[in-house]
Amino acid sequence: MTLSPIRARDRLVDDICRRAVTEGGMLCMVTGFAGTGKTWLLRKIGERMFPTSPVAFATADEFEKDAPYSFVERLMSTGLAPFRVIDVHRSPIDIARESIAEFAERDRPELQTIIVDDAQWIDVESRLVLRYMVPRVMGLGIFIVVAGRLPDIEAAPVSFFADLAESAPHGENIVLEPLTVEEIQALAVDVLGASISPFTAETLRNATGGSFLSVDSIFRRITPQERNKLHLLWDIPIRGVDPVHNPLLAPVFELPDPARLAVEIVSCADTELAPHVVREVAAHLDEVVDIEPAVTASVLTESGFGSTVATRHSLIAHAVRQTLPRERAQAIYRALAPSAHGFRRMWYTLSGATEWNAELAAAVEAFVTEAVRARNFEAVNDVMRRSLDIADGEARTSLLIHLALLNMQNKTVYSVLDLIDEFEALPPSAVRECIILTIFAHRKDQEFPVHRLAEFLAVPTDSPEERTLQAYAAFLEVIEIIRSQDFSDLGAAIDQAQAMIARAPRHPDEVDNPAMRWMVAPALCSLVLEAFRMLQLVLELDAATISDRLDEFEPRVLGLEPSSYKIDALTPLAVVAMTIGEIDRARRLSGVGVDLLETVRKPWAAGTMRLIHAHAFSLTGSLDEAAELVVAATESSGSTIDVETRLPLSGLQAWLNAARGVPDFIDLEAQTHRQTAMSWQPYAADMVITASCERARAHGDPDGVVAASSPQKVRNLQGTQRGFLSYRAHALIDLERFDEARELIEAIDAARSQGWQPYWGSVDWLRARLVAAECAAPRFEIDGVMGRDSVSGGGRGSVSSGGRSDKSKSVAEAERHFDAALGDDRFPLPRALTLRDYGIFLIGLGDRDRARSALDHALAIVRRIGAEAYAPGIVEALGTVAKMGENLVGTLTARELEIGRLLARGRSNQEIAAELFVSPATVRYHVSNVLRKLQLKRRSEVAKVFQDAGETVTR
């Protein structure tokens, strides 16, 4: 799991500050390129340390870097030591010794924090002072934090800070690297509440040099209107980025021309180069090159004892390429091409070309053919995009269509969405229309052009290629209906698609265009369509019949060879299984599909398959493992076609975090608005609302549950298992709105099997809680035993008339429902909470032993599955059980207490009578009173009650 940089750095600050306090001081060195967030980190450390120790913050200044002792004076001006103007003619050691003496002599606090920023600008004399002082004061209750900028820090004498922090027992050396693609994606979820694709994250990384501050700034420039559509989009607007001001370029601009040429050559190569190759390229350019100054400035790095050189970071190479004039870059690429092979030679050749010709076209075609065979579609896109920049006329049109068809094959059409206007400008043709329709299928922020699709499918044609394209588009129509709220046309669309496939070629070789042959797979497409038909049957047949159909159909799908078609056929079967309550089947089928995702081409339903698997796992397995599955699914959701899974994944993550007691920053209110505003819905469309309910319940907020599940928030939901209704019924019971709760429970009971599933708790659990809550207050007496108030948080409504007999019947009814609810052990969390509520109910009856047993079992389950949010409440209830024994023992008279102690030691009535010099009849009378007051049936149970009450029991 990749943690958001904000959260990761918060944790880092917590850890560093905790260590500083525990160890009574330490040295922390922070280095990184400009923009990586060094000052942000220092500020956080200062804020965290301020309540614990005085904080002195000093920033070195480039303006003073040539003024001797200027930084020491600046440091003293913070109040760290008496301020004085230092005689520049004195030696650094004398000044350092005086400063140490002042530290030792002053009445200082137990811990003091010194924060130094921009250490690369500290003047030389001050560096020498600090070099002497720091090792000697590290153990004097001083927490020193120093930040310096790469690459400046490496060549400066102040690098001793990093060496000391690395080697000292109380030291920490932190290097802030440019953000990775995964970190940028995690930051997007944190700041924007939506995932972004790896392609977008890579674009941001290249545009900003991976600068934490720049990426964060771009995210915060996104408008609320844009943010509300991020869950539907493949890209985000990038504002406020100027390549010339990339922080990684500063040291490049300071290099002499021969050294800068070395950087330009290596940056264009974008890989390690042997020094002789750099010189050969420079010779082709008829220019002088010098590698050494670039290495000294840490812009280039050597490896293999100088056998190769590369840019210090790949982002430096990208930044340099962005600033090169086009003609200059082309010249370098032409000079690089003879030294390269494979993709790099092709890339250099294209990047250096000034015009398209037959030789270049043949080379591109050969390369693309081989890359497709190797499934290296990233290289295909790179090469063809570069080719589009050069070609024109018919050649460019051909490349454009070929690029689209290849991305349709690889299910990466989102990478050509920016070309929609160019496709629309092409002359009308079947392939153009099919490409445009596929692009619209990926643009879920816009309405799909249903009428345009219908017109395309209605065009009569005998062409094998055009029939192939129509069959593909008919399949696409089925996909669009499945993603909508209305399945009424699904059967007709499947029939039409099957007919189109029957008219299309049966074998790929019947299609002349090689780029379209992948579309010809009639048997597999037909099987997937029949699997899709199962989704419609859920609306028409009962659960038992659907289960039988699954039994018949499942072996056909599982028997397929691994392919994207197999995943697309497994997905509707898993959805149907979840819909009819067969969660084990859903988990098994989705597990098969998720395993296949790593080995086959992308299917249509990659996101949905991962979501189903994570969802089923969260309901039946470890919550921590389920959370890992959700993170993996979320990270991949930026590049899956079914973008509609992004919101349910966000909701499932929030649900898991709430149940596990893990804080998160997901804005569920905004997510609910986005989900309910959509005219099409995914699997588990109510996941966000269910997460809101879980978050409120975990915090003991029944009003929050009722608000989250209000009718106006759920009225547009169609693709839902209505788990929020379970939460709502429990909340109504907690709020003593018993009539509403009873009405809702009856509605839930009527919807069992297909309209509602017991994934979040059974109807019997709800009925048990309702009966228990209604008879819990006022205090009531059952068969001579006074019950206690429930501590469940349930309502205290009036008890219906009818006396002791009616109350006994209510208790018996509640027990019967609890027993029935506990008979289903498929869903660990609801089972644990049912046991918790049963234990609390038994506390109210005074049945300590059974209450303890139920609560112990509940606690074991929540600890096993990781539902730590509920552990404290169960522990509290167990504490109530322990106090019960203590309170009951306190009700005994002195004589009863005396006899109770003897009973606890195992004495018989005769032995007690002899020891106390009373008659056996008197002992029997007192023993009866003891058992009644302790609410026990057997004398053997007395010892346990006395032990719980803190009484010493010896035999």
Automatic annotation (TrEMBL):
<dbReference type="InterPro" id="IPR016032">
    <property type="entry name" value="Sig_transdc_resp-reg_C-effctor"/>
</dbReference>
<keyword id="KW-0804">Transcription</keyword>
<dbReference type="InterPro" id="IPR000792">
    <property type="entry name" value="Tscrpt_reg_LuxR_C"/>
</dbReference>
<dbReference type="Pfam" id="PF00196">
    <property type="entry name" value="GerE"/>
</dbReference>
<protein>
    <recommendedName>
        <fullName>HTH luxR-type domain-containing protein</fullName>
    </recommendedName>
</protein>
<dbReference type="InterPro" id="IPR027417">
    <property type="entry name" value="P-loop_NTPase"/>
</dbReference>
<keyword id="KW-0805">Transcription regulation</keyword>
<dbReference type="InterPro" id="IPR036388">
    <property type="entry name" value="WH-like_DNA-bd_sf"/>
</dbReference>
<keyword id="KW-0238">DNA-binding</keyword>
<feature type="domain" description="HTH luxR-type">
    <location>
        <begin position="885"/>
        <end position="950"/>
    </location>
</feature>
<feature type="region of interest" description="Disordered">
    <location>
        <begin position="790"/>
        <end position="810"/>
    </location>
</feature>
